[in-house]
Amino acid sequence: MAPFQITGAAVVDGSGRDPVDVTVTIEDGRITQLGASGAHGERFDAGGLTMTPGLIDAHVHLGLSSPIQPQFSFRISAAEIAADIFATAGATLDAGFTTVRDTGGIDGGVVTTIAKGKVRGPRVLSCGPVQCQTGGHGYYGADWEPTELWSSHHVPGLCALSMMSGNADELRSNVREAFRRGASFLKLCVTGGVVGAHDKLTDTQFTVEEIAVAVQEAAARGTYVTVHAHNNEGIRNAVEAGVRCVEHGTDLDESTATLMATREVALVPTFAVVEQLLHDTAGAGLGESTRDRVLGVRERMTEALAVAKEAGVRIGLGSDLIGPAQDRRGEELKLRAELETPMEALVAATKTNAEILGLSSQVGVIAPGMQADLVLWNGNPLEDPKLFADPANAVLVVQAGRVVKDLR
Fold first, then answer.
1. InterPro entries recorded for this chain (predicted)?
2. Please, where are the H alpha helices in 63-142?
């Protein structure tokens, strides 16, 4: 790749420091210098634009890019599901997100296809299928359908939502299978969920001993477990078992937040999906009963965010969008900016998320030696965070030194 420089932008480096006007030099896919450089190559004049690191979404579901209920009831072909997945991957990149952590729904072939450059998309870390308790959150088969038939809903190499375990031995077998199929971390559902078919938010799923089996298997591979968890008992069980991250955390209380901070367990709140399900349940391909389940979740999740922040928990950022409407992924930053500051939302979506994903030596900040994942925004999203929500405002996106979107 030919070297190039970007000049004139207000550079927000992702660390939380104030913006600076500095030239950024990129060579061989990496940032080599901040400041004046004698490097040859093209110069991009970015006067009037704001540069940030490429955004990171720590909670996505690329494999749930089709309407949910039709997908799980075999009313959508594999070809259409694939088209929806890859369209969402491209839209994610266009929204300024150069890295995502897929927390359930895709099989390994999607990660490989995007990594090979055969379709446009962000860098993807995937858990493969979510690990779920038999009959718990993540199972969407019909009431009459035997559990063992659920895996027939998977399309190998494309989509695989979840695997069911009735005991610790089955869970150990299933997580080993997930790793065999390319998972880079594990996700367990330890409580019921909002988009649930056979569970309630107050349900607690998997025992501490069962969760610990997944933690043991992940540690043996040098990786970690994150958990879908809404109620406090499920969160505490997971933390006691040794997980490294909690998704959602809706009913997190002060004592459990303190325990999370002590054990360095991160939290990834997910506000955008709550807004999505409150205002466009049908658009996600879900019934109106889902709207009833989500009532009150945003208020409780907002309180949990404040509790976690007070306790000193590392707090990342994830959108959790589902269904076809995943093009405005930056809504999560806009929503978080209403609860914190725009700078705090940006740091969560860059530096902090990179730490949570284990990528802090590669991405998340603009600094020499880091991969050149950059976004140029039309305006200043720190002054107007609504800019994050509209992909049209991401006028230039650079991923690993390659310009993958250019609207200048």
1. Amidohydro-rel (IPR006680), Metal-dep_hydrolase_composite (IPR011059), Metal_Hydrolase (IPR032466), Metallo-dep_Hydrolase (IPR051781), OTAase-like (IPR057744)
2. 68-72, 78-94, 108-115
332 neighbors 317 (Cβ within 8 angstroms): yes
Please return the burial class of 38, using the count of CB atoms within 10 Å of its CB with bins 0-12, 13-18 and 19+.
exposed
Q: What is the CA radius of gyration of the chain?
A: 20
Asked which of 149-153, 221-225, 313-317 is least confident by mean pLDDT, the reply is 149-153
Place of tokens 């030194």: 401
Query: What are the two backbone dihedrals, phi and then psi, of residue 183, each rounded to the nearest 5 degrees?
Result: -60, 140
Q: Alpha helix locations (H) across 244-363?
A: 254-262, 272-279, 289-294, 297-311, 331-339, 342-347, 353-357
CB 199 within 8 Å of CB 230: no
Q: Tokens 């607690």 map to which residue?
A: 204
pLDDT tens digits, residue range 295-313? 889 999 999 999 999 999 9
CA distance 248 to 234: 12
Asked if residues 29 and 398 have their Cβ atoms less than 8 Å apart, the reply is: no
Could you give the CA distance from residue 393 to residue 408 in angstroms, rounded to a whole number?
A: 10
pLDDT category at 140 given cuts 50, 70, 90 is confident
Beta carbons within 8 Å of 372's beta carbon, 6+ residues apart = 26, 29, 30, 31, 398, 400, 401
Q: Rounded CA gap, 94 and 329, in Å? A: 10
pTM for the whole thing? Answer: 0.96
